[in-house]
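[Structure tokenization] protein backbone as discrete codes

[Encoding] learned vocabulary of local backbone shapes

[Begin record] amino acids and matching fold tokens:

___
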Amino acid sequence: MREVFTEIRQSLDCQSFLSYAPANRDATKSVRKLKIEIVNPALRAQALRVNYPEAYVFGRLPEPPPRRK
């Protein structure tokens, strides 16, 4: 049981939050595409995974990305 909690803690320690507010707030219900890249060469070498929706409709919460195993 201890191993499970250790794994959960490590997973939560590695999460970040990114927010975005579009400059054009008048265009409601328009699709906004996102692309997030890791540009730091040292971090890219670690083969980190970034999970995020590829697009969303402004004015509505996006669907969560599918969980990868």
Notes: Residues 42 and 48 are 10 Å apart (CA to CA).
